[in-house]
């Protein structure tokens, strides 16, 4: 099974680009040709600008706030692979986990902040002990994708 959330990441980037264009157009129209000043007072224009700026920043920073990550999950009869990177304003480095099926020792999904953030932790048997990989944010995945990953990982037999 192979699963990735590339479409969601592309839509987030496209949303960020479109909102930036709309925001720049708003600022240009509101303050340079003074189009809105004939319709509303300076105070109302300032309040409107603050509201538009807050909405713009929330849309732009949504991937950072919710800790969205691009994920590629792959599982076959030989190994389980999880690759990820942060796609936000300052993209992070790409990371990867590959666990041979013979040393797979389970998984854990945790929720934080009232379910806003979800993390997947994979375990592997190393030198007779259970070792945990760092948790990976799976918040950007849909419910169906999370269920598919969980079903796939449940089907692998843990060595511990």
The proportion of strand residues reads: 25-35%
Biggest beta-sheet profile: 4 strands, antiparallel
Average pLDDT metric: 87
Percent helix range: 25-40%
Inertia-based shape: elongated
- Gyration radius, to the nearest Å? 22 Å
What structural category arises from helix and sheet content?
Answer: alpha+beta
N-C termini distance:
23 Å
The total of helices stands at 3
The number of E-state strands comes to 8
Q: Unreliable segments (pLDDT under 50, ≥5 consecutive)?
A: none
Q: Give the helices and strands as they follow along the chain.
A: EHHEEEEEEEH
* Strand neighbour order, sheet with most strands: 1-2-3-4
Which features would summarize this protein structure in a list?
elongated; alpha+beta; single chain; 4-stranded antiparallel sheet; 160 residues; 39% helix
Can you put this structure into words, describing what you see?
The protein is an alpha+beta fold. It is 39% helix and 29% strand. It has helices at 6-31, 42-65, 143-155; strands spanning 2-4, 70-75, 79-85, 95-100, 104-112, 117-126, 129-132, 136-137. The strands form 2 sheets. The chain has a 4-stranded antiparallel β-sheet with strand order 1-2-3-4. Strands 5, 6, 7 and 8 form a 4-stranded antiparallel β-sheet that branches. Helix 1 packs antiparallel against helix 2 (42-65). The mean pLDDT is 87.
């Amino acid at each position: 099974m192979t699963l990735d959330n590339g479409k969601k990441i592309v839509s987030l980037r496209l949303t960020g680009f479109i909102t930036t264009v709309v925001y720049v157009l708003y600022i240009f129209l509101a303050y340079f040709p003074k189009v809105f000043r004939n319709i509303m007072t300076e105070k109302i224009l300032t309040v409107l600008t603050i509201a538009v700026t807050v909405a713009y920043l929330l849309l732009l920073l949504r991937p950072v706030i919710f800790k969205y990550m691009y994920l590629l999950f792959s599982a076959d009869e030989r190994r389980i692979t999880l690759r990820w990177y942060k796609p936000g304003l300052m993209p992070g480095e790409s990371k990867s986990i590959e666990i041979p099926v013979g040393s797979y020792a389970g998984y854990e999904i945790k929720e934080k902040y009232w379910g806003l953030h979800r993390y997947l932790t994979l375990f592997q048997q190393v030198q007779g002990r259970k070792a945990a990989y760092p948790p990976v944010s799976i918040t950007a995945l849909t419910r169906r994708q999370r269920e598919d990953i969980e079903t796939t990982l449940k089907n692998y037999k843990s060595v511990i």
